[in-house]
Design goal:
heterodimer, A: alpha+beta, Alpha-Beta Plaits, four-stranded antiparallel beta sheet, B: 410 residues, mainly alpha, globular
Chain lengths: 172, 410
């Protein structure tokens, strides 16, 4: 049996949420939702797995901390010991308060840029790439829910979607 | 069924009264047993340890109520919707302000009459050029520390703060009956006025009452540092009360998202405090100018506070940062209670670090007087907050953002 994708358009986010909950309670998976603004709590309702960007952010941040520490240790202690304000420059830890702002900034810099770049790559949002939006109206005032299902279930699901308040239903 | 009428149970009442009794006994016994340490002549000793402790607790607990008032005003000025569901808790925490302010005034009054010598500059001898105690630095600051000006300021701070705080609470109850938006906009106007007044007086009060303990020293960061410390203490008190009430089955309208937002505030403001604390430290450490470095010389090297300084740093920055970083931790009851308690004690110790090196110098203790008095004041504050909670319904009835707050989701 071939699979079909049902595209259901809604005028509001609340009926869409309610329908998504109903579908999930019947064991039907919602493939994706497109909306003009973020709908709070939708990811839990449609069962999107938790984002792992926090783990990436942590790794990027630690990388930043290490790079900054290495850089400052090399410049200020190892290669060319610099005495600023009469502070001892024999070892890194003796001067550590002075290095904290840069460590902090480098951590933030790496974490923020790393997260942004990861996001763009993961979503494949690069210069010149064509947008993957199935229906441009979802950038204005419509909400789109996509349900992928087998051919034989489609009438069943269509009824649920219609009952939930879908204003248009199409198959792709 | 969401029960909005909090009952101050007999058991809770007994606990808070018990704490107050402990505090009272410690105050009396502490005063009687507080003798001059070795090397200090008996005649010159004015129960410094006792009075310094009163000041630590007076300032710390007043700060909690004061910053709860500020936080309440902030919600109006910024037109915040989510916090309406827990607004009554902010109001209850702020209700200790009149007592806290009165305690501070009593401590200052005792200093003015020479009962204690915490404030070196209150001694009229130090500005008399004929006297052997003459101190030119203090004499140059006399314009600011002249008794009439000092007392005018002190009374204005406490008076105006209390006036605003009572006004907010009164209008909040009136709004329950009246509805509409007229009173809400009035609250907003008053809150904006309070913000302007508070922006100046939070700093100047910290200079007058706390920074002047080290009267030769000054720091432009001090006002904000004290302010952020009070703010985080107030937030932890608020979040602990919200969690307590939820545990007891009240505040059922408060959902995970409200708790999460409060957790974010605790996380953010503990960073704010750390930031200001470190800024003040690093600039002074780096420039190493004798008249500035004395403050940290006393606290780090001269009087043996090094361990306590590190403890404060770990309790107030490292633990909250690590423990509250993740989203789940900010929604978790146990995490928040543990971190909240750590921060609460940590900031009490921070105030201890502000006061003690300047007053009792090396003769500091963390013994039964310190702990007993802190518990006593804690009891007084808890008693006030619990009674304030019991007096009024736990949820506002008429507020333009009430509905939005009840559906809060992040």
């Amino acid at each position: 049996m071939s699979k079909v994708a049902i595209h259901a358009i809604y005028d509001d986010e609340e009926p869409l949420m309610a329908t998504a909950k109903e579908l999930r309670s019947k064991g039907i998976k919602v493939k994706d939702v497109y909306s003009p603004f973020p709908i709070h709590g939708i990811d839990a309702v449609i069962g999107t797995p938790r984002t792992r960007i926090a783990i990436c952010a942590f790794i990027y941040g630690i990388t930043g901390t290490c790079l900054a520490t290495l850089m400052m240790w090399y410049m200020m202690i190892h290669d060319w010991p610099t005495d600023v304000g009469g502070k001892p420059s024999f070892a890194y830890y003796m001067n550590v308060p002075a290095f904290i702002p840069i460590t902090f900034e480098a951590t933030v810099l790496c974490a923020a840029h790393g997260m942004a770049i990861t996001y763009y790559l993961r979503c494949w949002m690069l210069p010149g790439v064509k947008a993957k939006n199935p229906d441009p109206r979802t950038t204005d005032d419509k909400f789109l829910m996509i349900v992928e299902t087998k051919e034989e279930n489609k009438n069943n699901i269509e009824a649920v979607l219609k009952n939930g308040g879908a204003s248009e239903i199409s198959y792709k | 069924m969401n029960n909005l009428n909090y009952t101050f149970t007999k058991k809770t009442k007994n606990i808070t009264i018990g704490l107050m009794v402990i505090g009272f006994i410690t105050i009396v016994a502490g005063f009687l047993t507080d003798h001059a340490p070795d090397g200090v002549s008996h005649d010159e000793y004015h129960h410094n340890r006792f009075w310094a402790n009163l000041l630590v607790n007076g300032w710390f607990y007043m700060g909690i109520a004061l910053l709860a008032t500020f936080f309440m005003a902030l919600q109006y000025v910024a037109e915040v919707a989510w916090s309406v569901a827990v607004k009554r808790v902010f109001e209850a925490v702020s209700s200790y302000l009149p007592i806290g302010g009165a305690v501070m005034l009593v401590i200052l009054l005792a200093g003015q009459f020479g009962v204690h010598h915490l404030y070196h500059w209150m001694d009229p001898e130090v500005i008399n050029p004929e006297s052997p105690k003459y101190d030119e630095v203090i004499a140059n600051k006399h314009g600011y520390f002249a008794p009439w000006f000092f007392w005018l300021r002190a009374l204005i701070y406490v008076g105006v703060w209390v006036m605003f705080q009572r006004g907010f609470l009164k209008r909040s109850l009136e709004q329950d009956l009246q509805g509409g938006t007229a009173l809400h906009f009035k609250q907003m106007g008053k809150a904006a006025a309070f913000m302007v007044f508070f922006a100046v007086t939070s700093s100047t009060a910290a200079w007058d009452w706390m920074m002047s303990l080290d009267v030769h020293w000054f720091s432009t960061m001090y006002g904000w540092y004290a302010f952020s410390g009070m703010w985080i203490s107030a937030l932890t008190t608020i979040i602990l009360f919200v969690l307590y009430l939820k545990r007891k089955g009240y505040l059922q309208h408060v959902n995970d998202s409200h708790i999460h937002d409060l957790g974010k505030w605790v996380f953010a403001i503990s960073f704010l405090w750390s930031y200001l604390w470190f800024c003040q430290f690093m600039l002074i450490w780096y420039t190493n100018i004798p008249e500035e470095i004395v403050y940290f010389q006393e606290r780090l090297h001269d009087f043996g506070y090094m361990g306590l300084m590190w403890t404060v740093f770990f309790m107030n920055f490292v633990f909250p940062m690590i423990l509250l970083m993740s989203r789940d931790a900010k929604r978790n009851y146990y995490f928040l209670v543990i971190v909240g308690s750590i921060i609460f004690v940590g900031h009490w110790l921070d105030v201890f670090m502000m006061v003690m090196p300047a007053t009792v110098n090396g003769h500091w203790h963390l013994g039964w007087i310190e702990i007993g008095m802190a518990l006593g004041f804690l009891g007084a504050m808890l008693f006030t907050i619990h009674s304030a909670l019991a007096k009024r319904p736990l949820l506002v009835k008429q507020h333009p953002y009430l509905d939005e707050s009840l559906h809060h989701q992040v």
